[in-house]
């Protein structure tokens, strides 16, 4: 490999608009293009340093620090690899999609790697005034899927409990797609009657029915060039599922009272909190429609699967709902929120924060404000009596912990690792505590 080849590669990369670096197999940065220096350089000397040190402040390669390393994956596979990482950038930590491609010499041997970095603008790892926030492994896993599918035209099915952010994710997919400049049209499928569904989706011609005094464009037409988001698709009655299937299969629709079949041009994103596969088994959801809408499924994690995100979410949501800007939670309030279970997920968290912010007069929001505004049944306060957890007298702490662990284990339902995360201890500590009492 000649130095001439390397300098040609560098000057070629310099002309490209996306941030790129050239790396050697020992993780050293050999060159950075102008876009990289501008976006990620931050005035620092980059060339000659190790990528894991620049992007992660690690002292060892990512795969030795518990992260996936695209360079190692690319070397092993001999082809490009993509991962989503949290990188230190001049703006703080950001979600960055990293694509690493091997560069071969004339004998076919891999001599360099080119890494392309794209900051994910649709999600923030820090408190943000809008959009998706999160940095837990469950959130990053979902974000990775989202960013992979967004540029394609594939139909995405978002599956997740109520309040987990399905609509926000649908919008982020739209924003990260080639259709971002087109419209994003959301349709709530719950409570749709046959007539309403057709008129809403397909529009109608003047005189199609009593009251149709003018031609009206439907939502399918309004979504032209953009994304159609069908929320609560599991609520669609069977008769309407047929009509939707016809639209998806033929790519055409007809306005109510109209004669012409018009071409549809939208990317479909659907969402449901229901178990659609079980509905297909029970024959309440059409199998053919299920396969049409489910080209790429993405599960939005429940809040208890990403409880390490609660402080970040809480800070972001407070900034979004509070009428007094700049207020923060006390540490105790953050700890209280992190320990509470939100069956309504982020929506319930947001509602509680909004109420507490209205109730608090001072400069910060404390536990008392949250407790006062908490309308869910009080969480079992403390000794397992078989049905629940209650304490009516002062008892030794170790007995309390032991009884609480019993109760938490029965109530939690997940595996030990997720219970440990919920309890804010390591899995090893949890096992140690459980062994001690057995
Ligand atoms: N990752 C996130 N970061 C910040 N806010 C979020 C996030 N996910 C959800 N939210 C907020 O939580 C609330 C509920 O989100 P959304 O309406 O998207 O949930 P959903 O899953 O579509 O709910 P449903 O199934 O009930 O329609 C919204 O206020 C949304 O802005």
Automatic annotation (TrEMBL):
Keyword check for Transcription: yes
Pfam families documented for this protein: AAA_lid_14, HTH_8, PAS_4, Sigma54_activat
Protein's GO biological process: regulation of DNA-templated transcription
Keyword Cell inner membrane: no
SUPFAM superfamilies cross-referenced by the UniProt entry: Homeodomain-like, P-loop containing nucleoside triphosphate hydrolases, PYP-like sensor domain (PAS domain)
Residue ranges annotated for the Sigma-54 factor interaction domain, each copy included: 132-358
One MF term in the entry's GO annotations: sequence-specific DNA binding
Family annotation (CDD domains): AAA
Superkingdom as given in the UniProt entry: Bacteria
Alphabetized UniProt keyword annotations: ATP-binding, Nucleotide-binding, Transcription, Transcription regulation
Protein name: Fis family sigma54 specific transcriptional regulator
